[in-house]
Design brief:
The chain is an alpha/beta fold. It contains twelve helices and eight strands. An eight-stranded mixed β-sheet has the order 1-2-4-3-5-6-7-8, sandwiched between helices. It is globular. GO terms for molecular function: hydrolase activity.
Length: 329
Amino acid sequence: MRTLIFLLALLGATSALAAERCDARVATRTVAVGEVRLAYQSIGRASDPALLLVMGLGGQLIHWPDEVVVRLCGQGFRVIRFDNRDVGLSSWRHAAPSINLGYEALRYRLGLSVSAPYGLRDMAGDALGLMDALGVGRFHVLGASMGGMIAQHLADLAPARVLSLTLIMTSSGAAGLPAPSSGLLALLARREAPSREVALEQQADLLAALGSPAVRDDRAGLLRQAADAYDRAFNPEGVERQLLAILAEPSRVELLNRLRVPTLVVHGTADPLLPVMHGVHVAAHIRGSELKLIPGLAHRFQEAFKEPLLAAVLPYLRAHRQTDHWAQL
């Protein structure tokens, strides 16, 4: 009986320690990285393998759902999420020249060069600088959408440091891939708003358009998501600059062809912004990569697709974490 009580107490203590270790409500800190300050959170033990999460266009670190972060941490990772430059609580580029987004978007459609204050490779340098500042030598990377594009550059900049690459709903940026509808692009570019109320309605419209046709969104829920992001930080000019960084980017096919990092590519069959061939194309150009297509997934982390996404990603990350663990012994 004493043995049983001891074991139950031990299990309870282990569970409590795991819950404390993977608490997504940790403080947000900032660190200077070159010309910017980056806001970040570190969830998990510093001694665990690091997993860096890189968010997409206009997204803040809060757009990585807490429950997903906890599940990733529960696999034995130290999960690091951060705000890219120009969004959230990271540095905003206040001194940038005025931007005519419509003009630059037209140049992009005509195949002409696009001017941008900075590029995706600069943003990859930010991410690498963050890991330097945290004293993390080698790490895993998971990027979504624009974050996946940044992650591609990150793996190219520091191939010896990136242990594995997971790319979700992203693109190679190659010419000839299916384009999103002009209506969706218009929603994406619509950032000016005269009031908080209008801004929330616009963001809810965009979230709905990026969602899966197989899922009926709750408008009130979309407005709550929009409000959380708006009240934390609202910088439409910063999102415009990030969008210009994407438009100014040439094809990354040559970059992908030279990558030798273990890579998983995950894409949805119902993605309206980067249709499924974008993911197929990325996987086709990274030697040895794995491709997982999720039926019905669009271009958002929707609750209905949380488990299919985790089922695609967790075994891959777990396998590579174990490989790294045994290599270090």
